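Final report, section 2: Outcomes. Of the targets proposed, GH18 domain-containing protein is the one most frequently requested by collaborating groups, and we therefore present its record in full.
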Amino acid sequence: MTMCTVLFTALLLALAAFAAGEKLVVCNYEAKSHLREGQGKFEISNLDPALQYCTHLLYGYAAIDENTLKLVPLNEQFDVIKDNYRHVTDLKRRFPKLKVLLSVGGNEDVVGEGDEKNEKYRKIVETSTHRLAFANSAHTILKGYGFDGLDLAWEFPETKPKKIKSGLKKFWSSVKHTFTGDHVVDENAQQHREQFTALVKELKSVLRPDNLLLSLTVLPNINSTVYYDPRSLAPHLDFIALHAFDFYTPQRNNELADFPSPLYELIDRRGDENIDAWVKYWLSNGAPANKLVLGIPTYGRTWHLAGESKVDEFPITDLSGPGEAGPMTKEAGLLSYPEICTKVTGPQGNRPIDGQFKKVPDATKRRGVYAYRLPDKDEKGGLWVGYEDTETAANKAQYVKNKGLGGIAIDDLTLDDFRGICGHNKFAILRAAVSAL
Ligand SMILES: *[C@@H]1O[C@H](CO)[C@@H](O)[C@H](O)[C@H]1NC(C)=O
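The predicted structure is given below as tokens.
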């Protein structure tokens, strides 16, 4: 054997060992990322360095036609006419073990407002005729484009954000009882819960004969207790991705910032605003641990920091809405990991260097990291960002390992450092999480 074949065999063995590690690495891919400009533009070829780590790739997102209630492409032009569905499922030729699923919903298919927002997601489950038509339309699309399955990133109504009555804002501890968070958002929630189980059962029986997979993504701020019955859903699902993050976003909480995705309960927060609470709900209600995969975001949520805000008294009050958009993502209130890593300074020094963020690491390994830049004399440029970095992503993967969960779900690849701007390696968050599994 030449040196070359020895190395090659070693490589194959290493890859096989990785595959046998059995943990799922679900990688979300947001197709809309091709619309970003400059360094933020993400093309199919950018996926390559990530795919050796992913067991599943979720194509985000497909939509539901309001009138027919059938599954349809969200962006016909790009997905179908420009053949992006095909380009993505064709990746399986080079990555034969990869499973590519089409994901529907994901807060990308939002129609209507108020009580009518995303009504179609409730209408589908309500009658067996609609459920069957949806299942058949999904089957046709999956088969037609070579997908391995369907992911339901179902857009049930979100919980209402916590509000603090104005005037008392500064006295956080004394206003704990004035939350107005637990409104009823869906009067037929109980029926929808049962009907969703029926949808999942019926879908699986349509998909099973072709060995097509079915998974559920629990979107942020959807109350699992209300909509999902773990014990009756789990047997029909291949995995359940818990997107336990975005508990606080500048869109939901305009003047209030907090850790977007803590691992454990923090003092004075609602008991279900942490990862551990979500996992406990699913486990104690009959979901097998190996079917649960934990969502790990690759971005941060930002708020505009005003003069009066205290940056390290949580939750932070007196903020004025979403922080300014980043140069690559161009979306107020959001920064991708590479947008953050290029701005953040280390923990040295007491104050942020001009124009840069000061990072405050998480010694507790419970809450997550944040960074901030104080406003200047003219009240400009202040920003607070709660985010995920390689360390917190690894902590979450470690949690998955300790609890014997099925794996992780990276949300999403296009906001990770896919160009390797932050360090030597591309996809730093994905890699950090995978190595800790
Ligand atoms: C979720 O639903 C449960 C049961 O209805 C309720 O007790 C809890 O307060 C809800 N959580 C949120 C954040 O609304």
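The longest strand covers residues 56-64.
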